[in-house]
Design a protein that fits this description.
alpha+beta, NADH Oxidase, 5-stranded antiparallel sheet, two-stranded antiparallel ribbon
Length: 167
């Protein structure tokens, strides 16, 4: 799939059909996250792959639809390593979301409800106290593929000064 087609096709999906996702595809997705830019190239992030059905069911406590995912990837930050850790994990997440779409799967960036349950998730996944699990990407086959309308480019781009239209 062409890069710009992937960007246009990617959307947040919250209804999955469970499918078998080959390990090779998971590795491609993880590698896309690894290759994301990182402030000063410190790379203060790690990933955890959850494919155990019982654990995925339990993660449904964070957000119910997660329990329908085939695989969940958690993005773990190391705040003590870099003051840019939020930007770094965000770049990894977006790369991974695009890779998930390119591989023919669907996902949704889960953060807010995760952060409210972070201590519980860290305990479940045995994540060290000094680390943060800040993003989860549940992966599966979309039950329905629907993109939501985006603002027109001409309405959000300015030239040299705010308010002066570029397009």
């Amino acid at each position: 799939m062409d890069f710009f087609e992937v960007v246009k096709k990617r959307c947040s999906i919250r209804e999955f059909e469970k499918i078998e996702i080959p390990k090779e595809d998971i590795i491609k997705i993880l590698d896309a996250g690894r290759l994301a830019p990182s402030g000063k190239n410190i790379q203060p992030r790690e990933f955890i792959v959850i494919d155990n059905k019982e654990m995925i069911e339990k993660l449904g406590k964070v957000q119910e639809f997660i329990s329908d995912a085939s695989v969940v990837i958690g993005i773990i930050a190391s705040p003590e390593e870099s003051k840019y850790y939020l930007e770094d994990i965000s770049a990894s997440a977006e790369n991974m979301l695009l890779a998930i779409t390119a591989c023919g799967y669907a996902s949704c960036w889960v953060e807010g409800t995760l952060l409210r349950n972070e201590d519980w998730v860290k305990k479940l996944l045995n994540i060290p106290e000094e680390k943060r699990i800040m993003i989860m990407l549940p992966i599966g086959k979309a039950k329905t593929q629907q993109t939501h309308p985006k603002k027109e480019l001409s309405g959000i781009v300015y030239h040299n000064q705010y308010g002066k239209k570029y397009l």
